Amino acid sequence: TYNFCAGPAMLPTEVMLQAQEELINWHGRGCSIMEMSHRGKEFMAVAAKAEQDLRDLMQVPSNYKVLFMHGGGRGQFSAVPLNLMQPGKKADYIVSGAWSKAAAEEAVKFGGINTQQIQLKTDGVRSLTAEKDWQLDPQASFVHFCPNETVDGLEFTGVPDTQVPLVADLSSTILSRPLDVSRYGVIYAGAQKNIGPSGLTLVIVREDLLPKADANIPAILDYRLAAENDSMFNTPPTYAWYLAGLVFEWLKRQGGVAAMGQINQRKADTLYNYLDQSDFYRNDVAAANRSWMNVPFFLADDRLNDLFIAESEAAGLLALKGHRMVGGMRASLYNAMPLEGVQTLVTFMQEFERVHG
Ligand code: PLP
User: Fold this and answer.
1) Average pLDDT, stretch 147-176?
2) Range of the domain at 170
3) Residue 99 designated active-site
4) Which residues are annotated as part of the binding site for L-glutamate?
5) Are residues 164 and 296 in the same domain?
6) What would the mean pLDDT of 22-28 be, rounded to a whole number?
């Protein structure tokens, strides 16, 4: 089977097999890594290697802290304003779809924000307003945006050029291609798409943005406390951290994020090219803003939707039903999805079109 779920998503098969083998007897220690103390030397070594591998993969500069936190993407919707909002200043929230909208709605609880809606729909085609047309406050505490909108299937091609710290919710696109960390103040991502299982949240924060010791922030969301305690202020999600480490090792074996970027582009092209030549299916996102990771598509006759889902599941192509806010179908093509999975999907779609078109 191939699992096209938007999240939690499939992990690489190799990683699952390794985890299975190590599950109850990790490295001959007679117990599972999930049963070991997070402060013991075994887990500390696993944790440190995962961090180093991530640093290598993303070429994280030395003036950035890498934090392994709890609370998922939504936890960061609160953590970002709590840690970064400066007194008397507002923050700019760029709203390009469902997740950046949810981030803005949460941030309002913690300070003043300006929101800008930048998703457009013209003649049935959805796109994003060019950055030159955004109104940014040069005094803002930070600018928050979501480079890949998981629900909407829209993504940015460039990195906004801001005077103030740029905060990115990379939950559904982290590690999918190379990225220049130094352009960002804070990067965060729930793990459950390209990193590992849910329960773990990755935060990469520039050191000068860590809050001051007297900041009144719930301890569990405080970047400074997490950094000072090597992400072990409380018991971290150890098993998820270990699995993330296995995924980072797997990514290195694939050739790192540059190689992933090439594979991911091929995967996305394979599906979009097929959609574009078909009258039976369509994707409604402008070419420049099409997501590599989440591809929404529609059948021309939506009375066939239920049949499409039933037959695709029967063919081992799982979780293609679109998000309830968008409808239709959605194929999520995260790192663990091999090119063959996308090719198998396209072959299935061709056959479905032949029979029902
Ligand atoms: N941000 C993005 C871009 C997402 O795709 C998601 C979940 O799919 C979230 C945030 C919320 O993540 P979580 O469920 O871990 O809180």
Assistant:
1) 95
2) 13-254
3) yes
4) 39
5) no
6) 96
**What ipTM, to 2 d.p.?**
0.99
Which atom of ligand 1 is nearest to 198's Cα?
A: 15
Both 210 and 267 in a single domain?
A: no
Residue 1 lies in a domain: no
pLDDT digits (tens, 9 = 90+) for 177-209: 999 999 999 999 999 999 999 999 999 999 999
Ligand 1 centroid to 108 CA: how many Å?
18
Domain count, the chain: 2
Q: Atom 10, ligand 1: which residue's CA is nearest? A: 73
CB count, 10 Å around CB of 235?
10
Contact yes or no for 224/213 (Cβ under 8 A): yes
Q: Residue 221: which CATH number?
A: 3.40.640.10
pLDDT band at 132 (very low <50, low <70, confident <90, very high): confident
Cα–Cα distances in angstroms (integers) from residue 150 to residues 104, 127, 201, 251, 324, in the given order:
16, 14, 17, 22, 13
- Flag whether 154 is in a domain: yes
- 88 CA from centroid of ligand 1 (Å): 29
Tell me the CA–centroid distance for residue 181 and ligand 1, in Å: 20
Question: pLDDT tens, 248-275?
Answer: 999 999 999 999 999 999 999 999 999 9
Q: What residues flank ligand 1, with Cβ below 6 Å?
A: 7, 72-74, 99, 146, 150, 169, 171-172, 190
pTM of the model: 0.98
